[in-house]
Amino acid sequence: MGIRKLIKRIGRSVFSLKQDDDAAIAQSVLITDDGHSRLADLTTAIKKIKNYFPKSKITVLTFIERSSSLQNEFSGLEFIICAQGIRPRRYRIALQLLFLSRKKYDYLVNFSLDISPLIVQLLLFKAKIILYNQWGQWCSLRLRKVSEIFKRSYSKPKSKNSLKNCLKRIGLFFILLKTDDEEVFSHNILIIDDGLVAGQFIYASRRIKEDLPYARIIVLTALKRKEPEEERAINEIIRADKFWIKKYRLPRHMLKLKNNNYDYVVLLSLAVTPVIISVLFMKGRVLLNNRWHQWWRINFKPARYYLMLIPRLISGFIIKIAILIYLLINVFWIFLMRAVTGFKINLLTERD
Length: 352
Hints:
Elements: H1 3-14, E1 15-19, E2 28-32, H2 39-52, E3 57-62, H3 64-73, E4 78-81, H4 92-100, E5 107-110, H5 115-124, E6 128-132, E7 138-143, H6 163-174, E8 175-179, E9 188-193, H7 200-211, E10 216-221, E11 236-239, H8 249-256, E12 264-267, H9 272-281, E13 285-289, E14 295-300, H10 303-307, H11 309-351
Parallel strand pairs: 2-3, 2-5, 3-4, 5-6, 9-10, 9-12, 10-11, 12-13
Antiparallel strand pairs: 1-14, 6-7, 7-8, 13-14
Helix pairs in contact: 4-5, 8-9
């Protein structure tokens, strides 16, 4: 067995490939309507989200009395209606979010700083949490790191000194709320062009722009080409630094970019070294856009795969042993019947 085949087998045992097609880039958005915002603000936010993500899947978590107005205003939205029997009413949204924590969303959009839904979102969801306030601003929201606890990034407008407002001020001490406006919906995407298929990176960049028109696309390449300079879908081209081993120019330069916050790293082939560096060192999602223009997601295999590996090997060994015993019994039976038949023929011959 060659070293190349051995590395590929090891890679298959460590990394998983999942075909996503359109779902790889198209965003999934959950809008949390707790009833505190005006319907006008809600419809404006949905229109803006549709503009940012034309092919996104938008789900609205709301109350039944507000869903009818939204259904008349928009088509193609998916609605999740809160259960009516839950009391008190103020915790319906938070309890409904508990049942949605296993679903994968790219964005969670809120319209107020209601405490109970925010706690569920911050603790149970991995999506980006966004606040659309009454002044039409988009704000990103996440838990503060230890180094950011005393960093002040958002000032809540003055309000009455009630218990609710006091709890919100305490919550903002542990939550980093930053006004990003439209930048919150932009993506930094790095395409690794290994040059195996000519023009493939151009198709990939155009395809990304269809789903994410505000994305900033950067191409890392080791080849000298003029066509990327004329492609409008590409924002920047980075030429890999020279290296005495040519095939390691791209991987070496990728290590220099590992601290950049890329939301997606798009590979155009399954070259071993770029895959390893992308999954191990890059923070964003790693995607493959192959020569047939299919989208695949590359990631580590889940822990349950390794937990079930030994039981699978044991069960596979038992099944193979059972099949071998079955085949041996059949072969033995065939030879036995042939021996019996031959004995009968010899016996009849002697009588004659």
